[in-house]
Amino acid sequence: MSVTFQLHEIGSLLSWIEQQGKAGEKAVSYTIKDIKSRAPGWVATETSAVYNIKKSEITPAKTEEGKDKKAVSVYTSGETLATMSIVYTGRTLTPIHFSMTPKKPSRQRTGSKRAIPGKMINFAGAGSDVGMVPVFKEYRIGYEVIRGRRMEATGKREWSRPFLAPVKAGSDKYIVFQRKGKNRTEMYSTRTVSVPQMIGAKRVYDKIDKRIMEATEQRLQHHLDRFAPK
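^ that's the sequence the OP posted. Answer follows.
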C-alpha cells in the first residue's frame, strides 16, 4: 500500500522561477531539500492528530538489526518542483499499535475443565488419550484506531473469537489472532489499517498537501532572498 505527495497546479510558479535565472535554480534546489527533510514531520503531526498512533511509528527511521520492521517507509525522488514526489509505503498494522488492551491474555479460571486429545502427551500417565485442562474466562480485546473511537476486536465472523498470543515462540509481545477451522496451528493475525491508508484519508491528506504547498512557496521566497543579486 502506498500514498504519494506531489506539487500540483504550479505552472505559474515554475514560470516565475524561470525568470529568476541562476538565483531561481539555486532556490529550487535548496527548497526541494527542505521539503524532503521536513515533510515526514508534518505528515506525522497531522496523522497522529486524527489517528491514535505515535509519531515515532509514522516517522521513518533506521532500525537496529534484529528489531521489528518499521510500520512505514518513505521514498523521495525528483530534483525539480515538477518531478519531486514523496511516497509512503507500509503494511497493515495489528491492534497493538493503537493502545490495545489487555496487553496479555487473561488467565482467570472459570473453575471448569475441558478434555483435549492427549495421545502421546503425558497428562495423567504415559499414553493418556485425553487430558483435562482448565477453562479460562473469555476476555474482550479493545483498541482505538481513530482518536476517541474505542472499538472491540471482532475479526472475521466465520473464524474463531479473537485471542492474544505471542508474535512468535518465546516472545513477550502479544498480538491478536484468530483461527480458521479446528486446526490449532492455522492462526492468522488480525489487522487494522496501514500508515498509507491513514495518511491518504481525505481529512489528513488535504492538510498535509496544503502544508507542503505553503511551505514550498515560503522556502522558495526565503532562498530567493538569499541568492538574488543585491
